Each structure stands twice: as structure tokens, then as C-alpha cells.
Amino acid sequence: MATVSVTQNRVLSDDQIAFYHRHGYLILENVLSAAELQELRTATEGLREERARRGGADNIVAIMDFALLDEAFMRAAHHPHMLAAVTQLIGEHLRLQHCKLNWKPPTKGTGEVDWHQDFPFLPHTNYDLLACMILLDDSVPENGCMRVIPGSHLRGPVDHFANDGKFARRCTDPADYADDLARGNVVDLVAPAGSITIHHCCIVHASYPNNSDTPRRGLIYQIAAGDSIQLGGHLYKVWPIWLQGKDPLRARMENGTVHRLSRPLTNAGGLEPSES
Ligand SMILES: O=C(O)CCC(=O)C(=O)O
After folding, report:
1. Which residue among 220, 221, 235 has the greatest number of ligand 1 atoms within 8 angstroms of its CB, and so is best to mutate?
2. Over 90: is that where the pLDDT of 235 sits?
């Protein structure tokens, strides 16, 4: 696969980089041009129409791997400003770990997401893993914006398993968010359409339901440093999609990265003979 050269652009100030490392998130306002935003909205509408033609419901909430469905989405994954920012945060070799279109339709109460971290869904050898969400709509609490607990990423992965041992897809110990909420240590990621929010894989976050009359569409690109290797869990097909740089062919282990896996390590596709 062709590799893309490494960006040398600095788009984040030192203060923004320090903010990300301290608080675990960043909001980059108005990154996309009007034309870029329009192209992505058109592609998104195309997906909705196609699903409607196939008899799918109108209330789409998530489309996994959406970037494979329209070139505009894959172009957006390579957005130079986004990649330059991510390079400044986690380095020059960047792999698209997976992607998901989160579409909260204007149906009262849809799309609420409970408090969770991303990391327990997809544990890696280190924490240089983050999600960039390109906002296609103005994002506010009424239409279902994300909320984060600043600084919670510094606590590392927290428990997402229920008493019966099953992966619960949410923080199972309220102590991991309730005290923060009581103290007001919570930030709503409010930003205009065309902005990009970035959040660390260990930040505890949630998302409001959409209670407005308009959709809230967000394109989420989960990006891993080249030497951050997935250990198991959900979504663990490894995408050989290098957004930038190349495979450094090494795994960097971070102290303390011992995790329960949310799924057994099995070969979902079955065993295939292969040549070595
Ligand atoms: O769509 C959102 O607001 C974010 C949802 C979320 O937290 C996630 O998909 O991990």
C-alpha cells in the first residue's frame, strides 16, 4: 500500500498540546471549509437515502466503517489539518483503527451514550490512540453533543465489566464518574459544524440524547500511533490503512497495560491456509 508522507505542519500551539495531555480532549473549531463540509453532508445524505431504499430505518444511529462507503469520507480521514494535529499529539505514523458515523436523528431521545472509555472496547499496547470527530452539524446538549470528564484519562482504563463477568459497554463503577459530575468536573463539547473534537482513548465520556428537531451527525475516526497495537476486544480487525507514515513494525508497551478483554481472541473469519 502506498504511504503518505509525514506532515511537518504545526497547527496546534504548545498550549493546546499541553491542554490535550492534561485534560484528555481538544476542540478545534471551524476546521473544514464550507465546500468540505458540504461534500461530507452530501455523502452522508447519500448513505441515508441508500439505506432508506434498502428498507432501512430512518433512525440510523451508527454506521461502522463508513469511510469505505464513499471516497469523500476517506478523503476526510486524511484531512491535512486533522492529521497535522494528531501528529503533534501521538506521532508521525498514524493508522486508521476503525471509524464510525454517529448519526443522531431528530427523534426525541435517540442516541444517548452512557459513561464509558473507548480503550476497554479495544485495548492496545499503549495509550497513543484517540478519536477525532468531524462535526457535520452544530453540536450542543439539545441535539446530543458529547460530554467528557476532563483529566479522567490520567487514571488509566477503568472497569467496564458487570458482576456476571460480561462486558457492559459502560463504566460499571459509578465512582468513575459520579464524583466528577457532583463536583461539576464535566465539559460539554459544544462546537459549530465543521469543527473537530479530539478525545483520548481513556477519557471517560458520554453523549446526550438528541432532543432537538435536527440531526447531530459526527464522523468518528479512531486513530492509533503506528506502534500502538490492538490486543483484543471489539472491532479488532486490523485495518492496514495508514493515514500517514508507515508501519514501524514494532509494538510499544506502556507500563501497566494489563486488561481484561471484552471478547475472546478468536479468529472470527475462520482459519484459512496461507503462505509464509
Ligand atoms: O456520538 C457521540 O456523541 C459520541 C458517542 C461515543 O461516545 C462513542 O461512540 O464512543
Report:
1. 220
2. no
The residue whose CA has the least distance to atom 9 of ligand 1 is 102
**Ligand 1 test: best mutation among 113, 171, 188, 211, most atoms within 8 Å of CB?**
113
Domain annotation covers residue 3:
no
Q: Is the pTM of this model over 0.85?
A: yes
Residue 117 backbone phi and psi in degrees, to 5: -110, 155
Confirm whether 80 is domain-assigned. yes
Taking the C-alpha atoms of residue 19 and residue 16, their distance in angstroms, rounded to an integer, is 5
Where does the pLDDT of residue 49 fall: very low under 50, low under 70, confident under 90, or very high at 90 and above? confident
Asked if residue 171 is part of any domain, the answer here is yes
The answer to whether residue 129 is domain-embedded is: yes
Element (H, E) at 40: helix 34-53
Q: Supply the range of the domain harboring residue 213.
A: 16-242
Residue 100: which CATH number? 2.60.120.620
Nearest CA to ligand 1 atom 3: 146
88-128 residue pLDDT tens? 999 999 999 999 999 998 877 888 999 999 999 999 999 99
Give the confidence band of 222 by pLDDT, cuts at 50, 70, 90.
very high
Query: Which amino acids bring their CB within 6 angstroms of ligand 1?
Result: 102, 113, 118, 146, 205, 207, 218
Tell how far the Cα of 206 is from the centroid of ligand 1, in angstroms: 7
CA of 223 to the centre of ligand 1 (A): 15
